[in-house]
């Protein structure tokens, strides 16, 4: 079984969090099954990635201060994107460096023959075949001689992308619960900003036309 999972990449924390944050590392799948401290870790990644503190937050900074700063930014980005997993072979292909969750909808352009950017070093890419999308973990010639790829049937692709959106909607639900607990005065505006920047709630358009 092949799945498309929205993920945020979490690196070891170099800047202390201003709220409880789970010790997560790697590509963390987003859904409504995340615990509160796991959501906290992902929102900490978002804060660090966008606000880029040099070492620590300014003295006296509060969670509300960071929420307000995030709300005021022109655009938010998050390291990650959509991760492809094949449970039959246990092969996982994750987004690489410079791939962002904010561009997850680019996958929908595959049906029009356009390639989503999946990052570099390694450089995952999608080979567009007549009846399937073949996802490769890298574009190096030696990779193409191995049977390390995941095939997504074209007929299944729209449904998989809708499931990915459903997982993102679930993450928005637990992020709202987190915000109401940690930054209640900014919860509504922060969630609206997340939706604007990561385009979670609007209808998917998957068409070859």
Using brief descriptors, characterize the structure shown:
209 residues; alpha+beta; four-stranded antiparallel beta sheet; three-stranded antiparallel beta sheet; globular
- Biggest pleated sheet: 4 strands, antiparallel
Radius of gyration: 18 Å
| First-residue to last-residue Cα separation | 28 Å
Helix residue percentage: 25-40%
**Oligomeric state, counting identical vs distinct chains:** single chain
Order of helices and strands: EEHHEEEEHEHH
Mean pLDDT: 93
Largest sheet, order of strands side by side?
Answer: 2-1-3-4
The DSSP helix count reads 5
Write down how many β-strands occur, each being a DSSP E stretch of 2 or more residues.
7
Class by helix and strand content?
alpha+beta
Low-confidence stretches: none
- Described by the principal axes of the CA atoms, the overall outline is globular
Please characterize this protein's 3D structure.
The chain has 209 residues and is α+β, with helices and mostly antiparallel strands. It has one domain. Helix content is 33%, strand content 17%. The protein contains 5 helices and 7 strands. A 4-stranded antiparallel beta sheet has the order 2-1-3-4, covered by helices on one side. It has a 3-stranded antiparallel beta sheet with strand order 5-6-7, with no helix packed on it. α1 (36-51) crosses α4 and α2 crosses α5 (187-198). The chain is globular.
